[in-house]
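Tokens in:
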């Protein structure tokens, strides 16, 4: 998948984004995969505790849908991007925080005392102890820019929480 597909969707045309999304590749079975318009995310079934079972958070299919909304198209792009980035977790987490996709299951037991929103999850990592002891002035200056302190529920400057479009 072309890394600039998202920018094509947001800056150019649906037809152009579709052509990149549907472009054939050398991976065996990729054409069948990319044209799959019936498979949807599965519900989670906890094998040991049925009270943790939860319905899938999305009904998005894999195949490109020219008639879909821009948000649906972006969800398809970012979901495929996350699959392609595996196992690069840091980059995938940044994409999730930036776009809200792919839709993930909420935390079952939020132990943050209200600091972290169960639906939008952890937004950043706190400054580590060594940074706080070695560079207290820099940490204090950066924390003051955050406006609400050094906690994992605080959005970063680029994570506005606004619509993607």
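Residues out:
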């Amino acid at each position: 998948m072309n890394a600039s597909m998202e920018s094509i969707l947001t800056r150019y045309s649906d037809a152009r984004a579709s052509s990149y999304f549907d472009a054939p590749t050398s991976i065996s079975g990729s054409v069948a995969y990319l044209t799959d318009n019936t498979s949807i995310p599965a519900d989670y079934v906890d094998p040991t505790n049925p009270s943790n079972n939860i319905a899938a958070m999305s009904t998005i299919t894999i195949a490109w849908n020219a008639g879909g909304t821009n948000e649906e198209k972006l969800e398809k792009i970012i979901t495929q991007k996350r699959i392609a980035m595996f196992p690069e977790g840091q980059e995938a987490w940044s994409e999730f925080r930036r776009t809200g996709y792919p839709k993930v299951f909420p935390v079952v037991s939020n132990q943050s005392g209200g600091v972290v929103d169960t639906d939008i999850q952890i937004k950043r990592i706190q400054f580590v102890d060594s940074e706080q002891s070695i560079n207290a002035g820099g940490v204090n200056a950066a924390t003051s820019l955050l406006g609400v302190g050094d906690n994992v529920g605080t959005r970063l400057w680029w994570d506005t929480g606004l619509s993607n479009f």
